[in-house]
Design a protein that fits this description.
Rossmann fold; alpha/beta; 5-stranded parallel beta sheet; 2 domains
Length: 314
């Protein structure tokens, strides 16, 4: 019976779910802070690891490791990890992140368009304010950076709200519903955009993408929503753009350092919304269907498929 180790802060949920999904595997798991409790002899025979982050030095206890299944979509923290040999396959999982993140993006955009913040302030003052009229988003332009499974779901949801959507990708390709352009063209469309959504993987092309140079073409009605990776936004440039009226609002769910430190200026800026990386929760119900084929392949000794390209970063 092949062994699957789980190092995850929700190991108590993932171990029974993974075991039920593929009973032919022996699944054991530990919280990252309790990884030292793992039986050395058992780990030494395990060839697969399900994880988000593992403690430094942990992989030295898994000499037979050949497959790491990430518990989320982003793998930037794994592809360059110095402890992961090139021979180890790394796979990602989108799960139902597209649906979750589409709801997140639409919720924050609609809250802004419906003036809910102003309504809450008026209610707190028991003040009737008929000037708080909603914004018509019909025909407004939304730019979606990253148009894989997640970006496509976000684009579909925005189109259903009446927005015009353009997608930006590394290599443009044909799409029947949304025009797709290369990232280098993003700046051309920013002056017309109502919404900029980041949902791309972290790569050399997307690292620091939202900087002073890009935001120079922004305006005070532009909203940024980042559900991609924190390093895609240059925070000092973001704050400067907000203060200068080159960006109206920033909704940030991901950060270079998580948890976001208490002294970060993002917490206190009036036009920044900080959320605790909850736009796309990883749940067994949503994620296991994505990885089930590889669980079966591993149990049967077949090759793992769909490994990320470490050079491209996804």
């Amino acid at each position: 019976m092949r062994r699957l180790a789980v190092i995850h802060h929700l190991a108590d949920q993932w171990v029974p779910a993974l075991q039920a999904a593929e009973p032919r595997l022996e699944v054991r798991g530990w919280h990252p802070r309790r990884a030292d409790d793992a039986e050395i002899a058992w780990l030494a025979e395990a060839e697969a690891l399900f994880t988000w982050r593992f403690p430094p030095g942990f992989l030295a206890r898994m000499p037979r490791l050949r497959w790491i299944q990430n518990s989320g979509a982003g793998v930037d923290h794994l592809v360059d990890h110095p402890e992961i040999p090139e021979s180890v396959s790394i796979t990602r999982a989108d799960g139902n992140f597209g649906a979750w993140m589409a709801r997140y993006v639409c919720a924050h955009l609609l809250a802004d368009a419906q003036r809910l913040g102003g309504c809450a302030e008026a209610q707190a003052e028991a003040r009737w304010n008929p000037k708080l009229q909603p914004e018509d988003l019909g025909g407004a332009l939304a730019l979606v950076v990253g148009f894989g499974r997640i970006g496509r779901r976000i684009g579909e949801a925005l189109r259903a709200l009446g927005l015009t959507v353009r997608g930006f990708v590394r290599t443009p390709r044909g799409d029947p519903h949304v025009p797709l352009e290369c990232l280098a063209e993003l700046h051309r469309w920013l002056p017309e955009a109502r919404l900029l959504v980041l949902c791309a993987p972290l790569t050399p092309e997307t690292c620091g993408l939202v900087d002073a140079r890009l935001l120079a073409g922004g305006h005070d009605r532009l909203m940024l929503v980042n559900v991609g990776r924190g390093a895609q936004v240059v925070v000092p440039d973001l704050l400067a753009a907000l203060d200068a009226g080159r960006l109206g609002r920033a909704v940030l769910d991901v950060f270079e350092e998580e948890p976001l430190p208490p002294d970060s200026p993002l917490w206190r800026h009036p036009r920044v919304t900080v959320t605790p990386h909850h736009s796309g929760p990883s749940t067994p119900k949503d994620l296991i269907p994505d990885i089930l084929e590889n669980l079966r392949a591993y149990a049967e000794g077949r090759p793992i498929t769909g490994a990320v390209d470490r050079q491209r970063g996804y």
